[in-house]
């Protein structure tokens, strides 16, 4: 079965800069696929190409079986995808219900507005004007706008920015319920715990290329690499068997770094049971996803202005033709316009 998204040898250039350099990956139906990377890594350009908001200079791309560069198929694609942007871009004087109702009209089989309000936790704000919403509530509305069309594929761009911990967990539950119903999700986030909680697979981009891809638990060999065992010695107790290289601090904390953690733990726990001793604070840790991410990406300057914020004009308004300026499917009622990269598109009108 073909994947929901298939990318092969994708290239995007801005002048002499190759922002996306022969990127290839596939996303299966119903999968959550996270794309991670620092500013300038090529994430935004890659995602905008998948969404059909930016042209490509090489390679092949299929999204739900459609080439997003095919203007003749633009409407069919937009009716099947949802996009949750980093910033809210709706009329501030409309109510939450009015915004959702209006956008529902752009899709052939939208979710009921009341269902979306309940799903994103805004039923008590249904009649409030958008301008009165808090930052977290605006992000909930953004999520609601992304799912109102019952998308087969949902793009989530930093979906929980501004959420408190409880709201973040609630948003994660929404994403899990969507994928449980068969929706495919492509996630971009700077929160490593979010990627670890939601993603089935992760791709890390740096310098325009994918430098690692795998499950969050195995990325960069973190499931088989060195483990760190820590515990505290009790003052009056005996000394457990410790492998060579173990570090015993002046405060009694013992740190053991080993790739034979099962053997070391077996020795420690056998000794503790036999001697009737405790191992206070015993923990076993491997490298975190953040550790692996930093090792893979290092310190990379945001050399590509379009990646590091070039989708916005100097005054802060979204640049015409970019994903920040658009969120509804093209119904064929718009007027031709020129995208930021020189391509032609139809800008949808409400």
What does this structure look like?
- By secondary structure, the protein is α/β, with parallel strands linked by helices.
- It folds into two domains: 5-220 and 292-347, Rossmann fold (3-Layer(aba) Sandwich); 226-285, no CATH class.
- The protein is 26% helix and 24% strand.
- The chain is built from nine helices and 15 strands.
- It has helices spanning 43-51, 74-78, 96-104, 113-119, 135-147, 165-180, 192-198, 261-275, 289-297; strands at residues 5-14, 17-27, 32-36, 58-63, 81-84, 153-157, 184-188, 201-206, 209-214, 227-232, 247-248, 253-258, 283-285, 335-338, 344-347.
- Strands 5-6-7-3-8-9 form a six-stranded mixed sheet, sandwiched between helices. A four-stranded antiparallel sheet has the order 11-12-10-13, with helices on one face.
- A hairpin with a 2-residue loop joins strand 8 and strand 9 (209-214).
- It starts with a strand and ends with a strand.
- The relative contact order is 0.16.
- Mean pLDDT is 83; it is low at 300-322 and 324-350.
Please summarize what this structure is.
This protein is 26% helix and 24% strand. It is globular.
Which features would summarize this protein structure in a list?
350 residues; alpha/beta; Rossmann fold; 2 domains; four-stranded antiparallel sheet
């Amino acid at each position: 079965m073909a994947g929901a998204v298939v990318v092969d040898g994708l290239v995007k250039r801005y002048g002499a800069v190759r922002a996306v350099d022969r990127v290839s990956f596939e996303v299966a139906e119903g999968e959550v696929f996270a794309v991670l990377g620092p500013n300038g890594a090529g994430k935004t350009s890659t995602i905008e190409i998948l969404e059909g908001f930016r042209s490509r200079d090489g390679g092949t791309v299929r999204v739900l079986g459609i080439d997003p560069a095919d203007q003749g198929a633009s409407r069919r694609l937009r009716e099947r995808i949802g996009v949750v942007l980093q910033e809210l871009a709706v009329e501030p004087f409309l109510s939450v219900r009015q915004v959702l109702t209006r956008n529902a009209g752009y899709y052939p089989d939208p979710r009921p507005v009341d269902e979306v309000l309940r799903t994103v936790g805004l039923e008590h704000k249904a009649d409030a004007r958008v301008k009165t919403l808090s930052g977290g509530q605006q992000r909930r509305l953004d999520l609601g706008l992304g799912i109102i069309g019952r998308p087969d594929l949902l793009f989530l761009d930093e979906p929980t920015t501004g959420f408190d911990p409880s709201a973040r967990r609630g948003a994660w539950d929404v994403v899990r319920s969507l994928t449980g119903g068969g929706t495919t999700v492509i996630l971009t986030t700077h929160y490593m715990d979010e990627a670890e909680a939601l993603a089935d697979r992760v791709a890390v981009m740096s310098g325009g290329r994918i430098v690692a891809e795998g499950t969050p638990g195995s990325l960069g060999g973190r499931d088989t690499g060195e483990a760190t065992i820590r515990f505290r010695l009790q003052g009056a107790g005996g000394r457990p068997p410790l492998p060579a290289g173990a570090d015993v601090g002046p405060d009694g904390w013992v740190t053991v770094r080993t790739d034979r953690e099962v053997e070391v733990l077996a020795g420690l726990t056998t000794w503790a049971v036999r001697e009737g001793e405790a191992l206070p604070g015993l923990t076993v840790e491997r490298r975190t996803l953040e550790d692996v991410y930093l090792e893979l990406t290092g310190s990379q300057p945001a050399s590509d202005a379009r990646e590091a914020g070039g989708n916005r004009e100097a005054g802060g308004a979204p640049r015409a033709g970019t994903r920040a300026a658009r969120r509804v499917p093209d119904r064929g009622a718009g007027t031709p316009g020129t995208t930021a990269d020189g391509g032609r598109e139809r800008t949808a009108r409400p």
